Amino acid sequence: MKRIVFPGSGTEDNQTPVQTPVQTPTQPPPTQRSPTPPPTHKDEPPQTPRPPATPKDETTQTAKPLTLASQQLSLTEIVVPSLKIGATTGTCGLFVGATAGIIRNAPVGFFSLFSAGQWFVLGSTFYGGRLSALQYFGPGEPVPRDKVKASAMGGAFAGFCSGWIRGPRNVIPGMICFSSLGAVGQALLNWRAARRERLAKEPQKETLLQWLNPIKPLSDEDYEKILEEKLLKVDVEIALIEDRIKELLDDDREKKAKAKAAAEAEAQRNQTPSSEQDGA
Predict the structure, then answer these.
(1) SS3 sequence of the chain
(2) What are the Cα distances from residue 30, in Å, to 33, 36, 151, 157, 223?
(3) What is the pLDDT of residue 209?
(4) Is-above-0.70 flag for pTM?
């Protein structure tokens, strides 16, 4: 070890104190010993280590596919179909406006464009509002009551937009008119769908017109039954014809056998007199 000199301790003033670190003997790190396996008997086979059990990951399980009615739609999935419906209704409005312009003897182009714009706004806003209302009622298949409410809301939104284009005074009448039309139209569609399902489950009854009509529609099953009956009749006729042919062949063979026997008997009769004459 070196001595440390401090200032004012009787040493030279120009000598700067130097402090050297004290070197301590370093010891090597202890080596880790591998654990010795437990003693095994000679008769027992060596045991292989089992891999650690991996926890089940719930995210890896395949989820059931979600339908359109069971998942929430994004803004794009609502706007794009609404624009497509609006384009379709706008095309119809274009022809309606052209027809109205021709009937009124007015500018056809102006009437066509104005009518196409109105129909585009009505179609796109109604479909978009109805689809948004259905998403508001929650996921799952909507019930008929929710469909009526959604159609009424879509009609009110369409009437609001159409009335705002025509003028602020037409907003409230437009909302009332189009919401009523949407609700009534959806109610009629629900009634028709329910009636169709009920008629599909019930057995069909013969009406007066069907009873008077000589031509009756045939289902696939009835047509198959008719064809099977015709095939059975054809098979029976073929069997009868084969039996008749067999009988005719048997009769022909019997006739030939009888004719042959008669000819042989006649030949024998002719031979016996000639032999007697030769003997005499």
Answers:
(1) CCCCCCCCCCCCCCCCCCCCCCCCCCCCCCCCCCCCCCCCCCCCCCCCCCCCCCCCCHHHCCCCCCCHHHCCCCHHHHHHHHHHHHHHHHHHHHHHHHHHHHHCCCCHHHHHHHHHHHHHHHHHHHHHHHHHHHHHCCCCCCCHHHHHHHHHHHHHHHHHHHHHHHCHHHHHHHHHHHHHHHHHHHHHHHHHHHHHHHHHHCCCCCCHHHHHCCCCCCCHHHHHHHHHHHHHHHHHHHHHHHHHHHHHHHHHHHHHHHHHHHHHHHHHHHHHHHHHHHHC
(2) 9, 17, 81, 81, 95
(3) 65
(4) no
What pLDDT is attached to residue 114? 86
116 has pLDDT over 50: yes
Token output for 234: 């054809």
State yes or no: pLDDT of 25 exceeds 70.
no
33 near 12, Cβ under 8 Å? Answer: no
Contact 157, 126 (CB under 8 A): yes
